[in-house]
């Protein structure tokens, strides 16, 4: 993975390093952090301000959960490693196991990619279902406590603010409480208050990079015949700024998300959705909307102004006992479907950081590891965003050159099954981008004629 370059989870590598760990935020990043902390601490408490019901429902503080959530390969593999039987449970709860190579049609640069020769397994489900199974598995453990409707209000720290010693919380009954902890993990997402806390306590906050895409999602749910397991992904290429996706999920539904970049936002009324879909570069999603019953009464919208990355790995001073994970470190343009998988990869980095050195200098070792993971994914995501002239923000070095090569990779992948397979593996975060420069890909992509494309 980006996946293949990283050592897998290995419970035997970790020994007990502390008594109590607290995770703030019980969304995907927080739950996965809580799972790996449970190997190293006697008890783990995961708090969230939302109710945490047993059902698969979207929570108020995770409004993106109404929208398509694609689970890429690192997420699939790591969830199974951390929760053996996760896949079976997802399928028995109605989720689907599809073949990314044949069931998911992927359109970019004017054409669909060729069907790849190898099976590429992928789970499809609504975001609440993905999360509910993780939450349920953690709730079954004696060493993990999930505390719902519990608002994190402040870090508790020593006199010099050199060490975080716990968190202060406000319960739903209005009572305030302090939870002491050896380690606190901030998994509160994109609006994390850790940078402000650092600044207030005379630490340098992490440098923040922001790449604006002015994106909006509009999402609705369609009825799906049970036997029809196909999905569609239409990725915009300039000058087109709009795309969409239809993903099969539980209860014989498709979740359909339309999106537009740089202000070309999809509307939220039925007639507007129909018009927007009709002007997508290929008619598959419009056809689905015309021929299948709409289940949802309304269309949910989610604006996403910018991708944002906080460079914790560059900080020279950081309080002991505090870590940050998930969207609180980096939140990526969601059209590439990377967030949950990056959260999973980060949780595995936490696992290995704990295994390699326990609590000693944990934050800096963890952030170093996470920086490498985020770097690769960030370059892929914002690199693609910079294909659009209106994208603004710090552009990673070499982006334009790489984009020119990737354009040729994609065009080759439209007719060449081998290149299509290799490209899909990079998109799925299964293989790192340099694999697209392997000789078997390079010569097919750079071959001036059809000859290179025909060779298998
Ligand atoms: C529109 C959209 C579509 C997406 N699509 C995909 C996709 O296809 N595939 C994919 O892998 N990822 C996708 N993502 C990204 C994905 O949703 C996140 O990366 C993922 O949820 C991990 O985020 P997180 O756990 O770090 O933070 P969040 O999901 O934002 O959760 C933060 C949690 O912290 C809690 N919290 C915050 N403040 C407090 C407080 N003060 N006290 C207590 N609790 C608090 C919140 O209640 C919440 O539960 C998408 C994102 C968006 C916006």
UniProtKB/TrEMBL annotation:
Signal peptide from the UniProt entry: none
GO molecular function, one term: FAD binding
SUPFAM superfamilies in alphabetical order: FAD/NAD(P)-binding domain
Superkingdom of source: Archaea
FAD-binding domain segment(s): 22-355
Any Pfam family: FAD_binding_3
UniProt-listed InterPro entries: FAD-bd, FAD/NAD-bd_sf
Name this protein carries in UniProt: Oxidoreductase
